[in-house]
């Protein structure tokens, strides 16, 4: 199907300010969409209120309106610009809700503006809990026992029938806002009252608890010709009951059997078809591996934080392709920009492991409630790629910039065994470190499994890391042991700590045995086709795919995860510095680890390295690229903090 000839001007709705639950992922998605639409020769009008984003730059859309994201202001822009279509699915929950209000108020119909991508009926069916439940029942997809309520009294009545715990999910909210898990009547009244206030239609879904089941997500795409693909499937390390934005997530899924994977993939495609979504869609499942039963938890009929993660994890640009689908193109007509050879119809294949870790604000808000539930508390996230799960897990930890570079948290070893077990049974930002401490103390894997609800497979991977710590303490540091530790993601400083030697000695030993990282390319197709986009991650294997190029090079160091005090303004600066260096004739290299941002898009710099912003990892990239120098002043405090160490090493 060719592009819709009736659409010549498109209005894109942004996502407004960064808030907990809605971070730079929508800046990334909206920027990609605007550029993607311009590639198709369309005029693009943008409305957004955030000055810190690349999206509101004058070169991203043809016309930018920095205005409040309200019906009143959006309607005024529509009347002034007279767009043919409105694209609402790339501006997060804010953009989606605004589009629904514009449609319901009759403004779109009156001005002759077509809602592009996902139809209003699909948005309502996915966001309105009652319509969603009804649709799932119609297509035979299982949903948990639940009831829609509009008052706290109705909530109490259902609780007396169904019992506790109950999960409270408000309609049309962001990042689980207003939701939670109620274990008694008092908690139910409090959470439901809050949820009803937060929901734009004053509606919440009460759901019989699926706590403890596996949480699995599928990121799926559909075009106007009903062609569908699964871009990526992801598995939450944490069980159901913790918002996916607050969970450690692994892609592709690690513990599913082929039968489970195929069943959930088929269900995802069936759901996106039933909804009629044209573009990207996120489907979340609860899976009980023992019985084989699964339930559909919820669907986002728009790009989400998971979409940004799936895009960067696979190299498949979901928002870019969703924008092209919205104006009538089909998956088999859109070229995959990563390979330049295949079409967007090819499902990505991963030959590596991706780990996403949330970045929480508890270092700034030390008195805040650290317990994690169905309402997101993370401000941002980091992503790590490696050939082993252990390596990706260790990279993820040192990417968080919490002053931690392994699975050891200061003060954890001083806690009693009972205190450690308490930290395992209640999910907080410290649970990962409590799990490692329990393993160090020899707590049985089955007991840890029962306390945490985390699959034994993930615990065994953590046990491998703890076992390596013990080997480094007990065995002589040979070339073989050193290489094993490096493949498992151990930085030199941690190896030195356990081996009882200086970090410099480890570095010298690595030089002696020629143990250094090699770089592999993210190509969406497990090397079946040659990739055109140079997007790399490090691992300790033989072949280096990031071959040195003989051209004056500069490295731009990114700003890492979004946290309180360091937002997307530094990503904005990094992107502009990369563009400026390119225009000045330099080959540009970006190092960053934030999957939500524009700077980690595959086409911003000549090369992108998805790596921790830790001195050892940064130095390894510099040694591989041999740049003229490094730009640190654009990556906020993260990059500036590296300056002294880089200078000491002669950079």
Automatic annotation (TrEMBL):
GO terms for molecular function: ATP binding; carbamoyl-phosphate synthase (ammonia) activity; carbamoyl-phosphate synthase (glutamine-hydrolyzing) activity; metal ion binding. Pathway: Amino-acid biosynthesis; L-arginine biosynthesis. Keywords: Amino-acid biosynthesis, Arginine biosynthesis, ATP-binding, Ligase, Magnesium, Manganese, Metal-binding, Nucleotide-binding, Pyrimidine biosynthesis, Repeat. Its cofactor is Mn(2+). It comes from the Bacteria. Residues 133-327 form the ATP-grasp domain. It catalyses: hydrogencarbonate + NH4(+) + 2 ATP = carbamoyl phosphate + 2 ADP + phosphate + 2 H(+). InterPro entries: ATP-grasp, CarbamoylP_synth_lsu_oligo_sf, CPAse_ATP-bd, CPSase_dom, CPSase_lsu, CPSase_lsu_oligo, CPSase_preATP-grasp, PreATP-grasp_dom_sf. It holds the Pfam family CPSase_L_D3. One of its GO terms (biological process) is L-arginine biosynthetic process. The keyword Magnesium applies. One of its GO terms (cellular component) is cytoplasm. Signal peptide: none annotated. Belongs to the CarB family. PANTHER family: CARBAMOYL-PHOSPHATE SYNTHASE [AMMONIA], MITOCHONDRIAL (PTHR11405:SF53), CARBAMOYLTRANSFERASE FAMILY MEMBER (PTHR11405). This is Carbamoyl-phosphate synthase large subunit. It comes from Thermosediminibacter litoriperuensis. The lineage of its organism: Bacteria, Bacillati, Bacillota, Clostridia, Thermosediminibacterales.
């Amino acid at each position: 199907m060719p592009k819709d000839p009736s659409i010549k001007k498109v209005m894109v709705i942004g996502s407004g300010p960064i808030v907990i639950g809605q971070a730079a992922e929508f800046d990334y998605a909206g920027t990609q969409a605007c550029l993607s639409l311009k590639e198709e020769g369309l005029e693009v009008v943008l409305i957004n209120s955030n000055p810190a984003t690349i999206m509101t730059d004058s070169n991203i859309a043809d016309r930018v309106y920095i205005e409040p994201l309200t019906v009143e202001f959006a309607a005024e822009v529509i009347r002034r610009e007279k767009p043919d279509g409105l694209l609402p699915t790339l501006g997060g929950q804010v953009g989606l809700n605004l589009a629904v209000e514009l449609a319901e108020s009759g403004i779109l119909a009156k001005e002759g503006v077509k809602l592009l991508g996902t139809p209003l009926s699909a948005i309502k069916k996915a966001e309105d809990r009652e319509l969603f439940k009804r649709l799932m029942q119609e297509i035979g997809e299982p949903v948990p026992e639940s009831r829609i309520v509009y008052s706290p009294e109705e909530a109490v009545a259902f609780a007396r029938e169904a019992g506790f715990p109950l999960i409270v999910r408000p309609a049309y909210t962001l990042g689980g806002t207003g939701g939670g898990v109620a274990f008694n009547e008092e908690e139910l009244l409090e959470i439901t009252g809050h949820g009803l206030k937060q929901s734009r239609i004053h509606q919440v879904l009460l759901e019989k608890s699926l706590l403890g089941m596996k949480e699995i997500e599928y990121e799926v795409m559909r075009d106007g010709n009903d062609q569908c693909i699964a871009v990526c499937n992801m598995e939450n390390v944490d069980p159901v009951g913790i918002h996916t934005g607050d969970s450690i997530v692994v892609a592709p899924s690690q513990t599913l059997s082929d039968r489970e994977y195929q069943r959930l993939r088929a269900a995802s495609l069936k759901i996106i078809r039933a909804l009629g979504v044209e573009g990207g869609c996120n489907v979340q499942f609860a899976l009980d591996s023992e019985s084989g039963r699964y339930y559909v938890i919820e669907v986002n009929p728009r790009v989400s934080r998971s979409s940004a993660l799936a895009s960067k994890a696979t190299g498949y640009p979901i928002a870019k392709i969703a924008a092209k689908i919205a104006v009538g193109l089909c998956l088999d007509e859109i070229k995959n920009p990563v390979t330049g050879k295949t079409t967007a119809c090819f499902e990505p294949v991963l030959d590596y492991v991706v780990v996403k870790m949330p970045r929480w604000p508890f270092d700034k808000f030390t008195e805040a409630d650290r317990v994690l539930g169905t309402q997101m508390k993370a401000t941002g996230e980091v992503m790590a790629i490696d050939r082993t799960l252990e390596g990706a897990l260790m990279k993820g930890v040192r990417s968080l910039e919490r002053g931690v570079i392994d699975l050891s948290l200061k003060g954890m070893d001083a806690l009693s065994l009972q205190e450690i077990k308490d930290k395992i049974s209640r999910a907080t930002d410290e649970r990962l470190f409590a799990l490692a401490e329990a393993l160090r103390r020899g707590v049985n894997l089955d007991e840890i499994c029962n306390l945490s609800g985390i699959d034994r497979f993930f615990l065994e991977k953590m046990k491998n890391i703890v076992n390596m710590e013990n080997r480094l303490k007990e065995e002589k540091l040979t070339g073989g042991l050193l290489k094993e530790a490096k493949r498992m993601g151990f930085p030199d400083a941690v190896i030195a700590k356990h081996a009882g030697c200086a970090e410099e000695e480890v570095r010298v030993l690595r030089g002696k045995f020629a143990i250094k990282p090699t770089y592999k390319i993210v190509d969406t197709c497990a090397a079946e086709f040659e990739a055109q986009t140079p997007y790399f991650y490090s691992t300790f294997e033989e072949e280096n795919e990031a071959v040195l190029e003989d051209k004056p090079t500069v490295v731009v160091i990114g700003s890492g995860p979004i946290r309180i005090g360091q937002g997307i303004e530094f990503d904005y600066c990094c992107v502009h510095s990369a563009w400026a260096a390119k225009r000045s004739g330099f080959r540009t290299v970006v190092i960053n680890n934030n999957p939500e941002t524009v700077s980690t898009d595959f086409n911003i710099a000549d090369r992108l390295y998805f790596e921790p912003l830790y001195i050892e990892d940064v130095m390894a990239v510099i040694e591989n690229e041999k740049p003229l120098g490094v730009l640190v002043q654009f990556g906020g405090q993260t990059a500036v903090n590296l300056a002294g160490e880089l200078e000491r090493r002669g950079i």
